[in-house]
Design goal:
By secondary structure, the chain is an all-alpha fold. The chain has one domain. It has six helices and no strands. Helix 3 packs antiparallel against helix 4. The longest helix has 26 residues. The radius of gyration is 16 Å and the shape is globular.
């Protein structure tokens, strides 16, 4: 089995559990995010291409924006969302971590609009962000290079 396929299966397992647990409980627990980050570190350290700067860049690109939102908003995002995004950043690297956050925000925002318009949620109701964050990380893992190239071709000529 190719190393990238094995890595993707491990990541998919973590993301599926995070999405389901957050959807059902409203929490993303440390017992999930810490091993996810540890596995990401193992994969990155043994691939031979990733240095400390790349690891720190991915960690910060994933976690810092959500931490800032959490601090500034005083509610909304939980600490588990921040840790999941940081762990995702370790898996993805900084460019793909930003892409994952953008995708999660867009998909989550569209889902929230649909829920509001359908009457399944009302203003002020909580919507778990973990499933959307998991989906954004997964899409970025699978298609990040293509999406970034497509963005560059479309917006940068």
């Amino acid at each position: 089995m190719d190393g990238r396929v094995f890595e993707g299966l491990v990541l998919a397992a973590f993301l599926a559990v995070a999405a389901i647990v957050d959807y059902r409980t409203g929490f993303i627990f440390d017992w999930l995010t810490f091993p996810m980050a540890a596995c990401a570190l193992c994969f990155r350290l043994f691939d031979g291409d990733t240095g400390l700067i790349q690891l720190l860049g991915g960690l910060l690109a994933g976690g810092a924006p959500l931490l800032a939102i959490r601090i500034l908003s005083h509610e909304g995002l939980g600490g588990g969302d921040v840790k999941l995004a940081a762990a995702g950043g370790l898996w993805l690297g900084w460019q793909h971590a930003f892409l994952a956050l953008a995708l999660a925000s867009w998909i989550g925002g569209l889902a929230a609009i649909v829920l509001l318009l359908s009457g399944k949620k009302r203003g002020g109701d909580e919507v778990a962000f973990g499933p959307f964050l998991s989906l954004g990380i997964w899409i970025s893992f699978l298609f990040g290079n293509h999406l970034i190239k497509l963005y560059g071709a479309f917006f940068c000529g």
